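Postdoc handover notes: sequence design on the structure in folder B. Input tokens:
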């Protein structure tokens, strides 16, 4: 199950939740204020993985 990061639209806090992809945006409750209004953040960890990437042959200059 992937970890998703959300930002609460009510209090602006961010929080992470482990969810199934099919339920990524359903049944969310902010642990800070209890709001169900949240937007999913793009997590770098879920795309390319955290760490690694020792910068061999970048070419972004
Ligand atoms: Zn909140």
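Designed sequence:
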């Amino acid at each position: 199950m992937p970890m998703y990061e959300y930002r609460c639209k009510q209090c602006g806090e961010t929080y992470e939740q482990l969810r199934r992809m099919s339920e990524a945006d359903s049944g969310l409750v902010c642990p800070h204020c209890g709001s169900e209004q949240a937007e999913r953040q793009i997590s770098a960890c879920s795309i390319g993985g955290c760490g690694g990437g020792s910068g061999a042959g970048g070419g972004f200059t």
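Context for whoever picks this up: The mean pLDDT is 81. Don't rerun without checking with the PI first.
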